[in-house]
Amino acid sequence: MAEQNIFDNETFFGGYRELRATDANYNEQLEQPAIAELLPNIYGKSVLDLGCGYGHNCIDFVKRGALNVVGIDISKKMLEVAEKESSDEKITYLNMNMTDISILAQKFDLIYSSLAFHYVDDFASFAKDMYSLLNPGGYLLFSQEHPLVTATYGGNHHYNKDEKGNYLSFTFSNYNEPGKRDTFWYVDGVEKYHRRFSDIINALCSAGFIIDTVCEPVPDTKATEKIPNILAKEQIKPSFLIIKAKKV
Amino acid sequence: MAEQNIFDNETFFGGYRELRATDANYNEQLEQPAIAELLPNIYGKSVLDLGCGYGHNCIDFVKRGALNVVGIDISKKMLEVAEKESSDEKITYLNMNMTDISILAQKFDLIYSSLAFHYVDDFASFAKDMYSLLNPGGYLLFSQEHPLVTATYGGNHHYNKDEKGNYLSFTFSNYNEPGKRDTFWYVDGVEKYHRRFSDIINALCSAGFIIDTVCEPVPDTKATEKIPNILAKEQIKPSFLIIKAKKV
Q1: Where are the domains of chain B?
Q2: Given a cut of 80, is residue A104 above it in pLDDT?
C-alpha cells in the first residue's frame, strides 16, 4: 500500500492548521456534532482512534470515561501537536500507518475515525483488520468524505448557482467508477480513494460487521449561523458520510 | 397512505407496455440481471413478489423450484396480463396495495420486489411489516430507483454532454431533502418518494434486518451492445439501487 503522508508536507500542514484554527468550518459545525451523536457509551472501555490528528477526540474519550485510548496518525507533525495539546496518561499516541493496525496486540471496544478512511486503498482488507481488533459487542464509528464528494476525477465537481448567487444544484461524474483519485487540497497530488455506498457497506458486511446506523448529516441552526450557505449546499448534496457498525 | 395506482391509467399503461415490449431497456439489460445474481436458493421455498406486474418473475420463481409464490400488484390491468401470460397453480395473484401486506397470514422465505419501493411513502413502517412476514433465515431482495434519480424536485436532473454528444457529468439537487416527489412518467403527477441511502439502510436495520449486499449495477457487454451510451451514463451515475437483507 502507498504510504501517503501529505500531512507532513509544510505547505499542506500550514493550510490545514489555519483551517482548523477557527470553528467556522464544516468539521466543527457539521461532521463532529453528527458523529458525536452516534458515540456509544465508552465509560470504562478501550478506544482506538485512527487518524487521530491533534488528539482532540482522544482527550474527549478520556473525559467520557474511557479506560484507555490509543491514537494513531501517520503524521509526526500532527502527533507533536497532540502530545502538547492533548496529553493524558490514559492516551498512547503511535506514529504509524493506520492500515498497519493488525500488528497491535490490544483489543478495543470502539474503533473511531474522523475523516481519514477516504485515504485508505484496500478498504475491504482494512475492514477485516478492524473487525479482528474489536471485542465482541464493540463498535466501529467513522466519518469520511461523502461518495458524491470523492467521485469525480480530478475533483472536478461543482455547485451551480443562479444569477443572484443562490445555490441550485451539484454537478459530478464518475460515481460508478470506484478507485484512486488525485485531488488538490492545499497542495497537488493528494491521493484519495473513491468508494460507492455499495462498496463501503459490502466491505463492512463481508468483514462481519452488522450495520447499526448510516448518517448523511444536515446542518443545524448553529452551523447555519456560523457558515453562510452551508444549509443550501448540504441540502443539495451532503459532504459527509458517517457509519456506525457493530461486532456481535 | 395515498393509494396511487398510476398503472391503471390508460395513457400510462400504453406507454409502459410499449417500453416493456422490447428488451432494449434498462430493466431487462441492467436491473434484472443484477438482481437475479443476488437471488438466494428458493427451491422448496415460499416467495412474495411485491409489485409483481406481469408476473414474469413469479413464473421464474416457480421454474427455480419455489413451493408457492404470491404476487401482489395494485394494478388490475397488470394482473390481467399476469393471469394470462404468467399463470401457474403454484402462483396466487392478489390485487392489493403492497403496503397492506400485514393482513397476510402466510410467512415467506423470500420477499422480492423489482422497482416498486420508490412508490412507498412510509418505508420504515413498511420494512417492519416485511420483517414480520419473513421466516427466520429469510431474505428481502429489492431494487428501486437510485437515490440520485429520485432526489431532484420535479425530476429536473440532467446529464451534461460535450459538443460531440459525449456524456460528461450529471446535475442533480435536493438529495439531502427526503420526501415526496411529483414526477412525469408518460403522465403527470406520478408520485414517488425520495429516500437517501442512509434513510433506506436505517429503516431496514431498525426493522431488524441484517444487510447482506448492496449493489449499484454497472452494465455488462451485452447491455452495452443493446443500448447506446448506457455504459457512459451508468459510469457517471447509477440508475438502480439493489439491496439484499436477511432476517436472522
Answers
A1: 6-146+194-246
A2: yes
Cell of A187: 497542495
Per-residue model confidence (pLDDT) at position B2 = 44
CATH superfamily of B6-146+194-246: Vaccinia Virus protein VP39 (3.40.50.150)
Q: Using only C-alpha atoms, what is the Rg of chain A?
A: 18
Nearest CA in chain A to B235: A176
The 10s digit of each residue's pLDDT in A186-213 is: 666 678 999 999 999 999 999 999 999 9
In angstroms, the CA A212 to CA B129 distance is 19
Between A157, A174, A235, which is nearest B177 by CB? A235
Exposure letters B169-186 (e unless 16+ CB within 10 A, then b): bbbbbbbbbbeebebeee
Phi, psi angle pair for A174, to nearest 5°: 60, 20
Q: ipTM of this model?
A: 0.92
Write the CB contacts of B54 (distance below 8 Å, at least 6 apart in sequence).
B20, B78, B81, B82, B85, B86
**What are the cell numbers at A162?**
443562479
Residues B30 and B7: beta-carbon distance below 8 Å: no
> Model-level pTM?
0.93
Helices (H), chain A: 10-21, 26, 32-37, 56-63, 76-85, 123-133, 147-150, 197-207, 221-226, 230-236
Third-level CATH fold of A6-246: Rossmann fold (3.40.50)
**Which residues, including other chains, have CB under 8 Å from residue B187's CB and lie 6 or more apart?**
B6, B9, B11, B12
How many other CB atoms sit within 10 Å of the CB of residue A227?
Answer: 19
Q: Measured between beta carbons, which residues in chain B are less than 8 angstroms from residue A148?
A: 175
At CA B199, angle to CA B56 and CA B194, rounded to 5?
A: 65
Residues from chain B that touch A168, judged by Cβ atoms under 8 A, are 173
